[in-house]
Request: fold
Amino acid sequence: MAKNEVRYSEAFKMMVISELESGKLSSIAAARRKYGIGGAGTIKLWLKKYGKNHLISKVVRVETVQDVDEKQALKRRISELEKALANITVQSVMDRAYFEVLCERQGITDVDGLKKKLAAKLSAKPGK
Reply:
């Protein structure tokens, strides 16, 4: 058993479930607060165990066909952008490696200085 693990008796579990079922406790969160039950899923597990699934609140999401289509399109777009980013990252790593090899072959030891000079030339306005 874990260091901080708490064991609850069957009688206690049934009492909490009974209070939820009768409406004495308005929600699982209220039961957790009242009895100091730490685990967010603890009471849900009890409810499932004792066949009281109807006491577990459910989230119902209403989506139009347009919403579903838009969500699928966005997922496809995210996938495309992730692939593009991966390709650009690989290309950038390769370009950096080629640049370093070129500098080495040309006997250039101050690679960062060369980068700064090239960046300054590229950012200079034409005609200056």
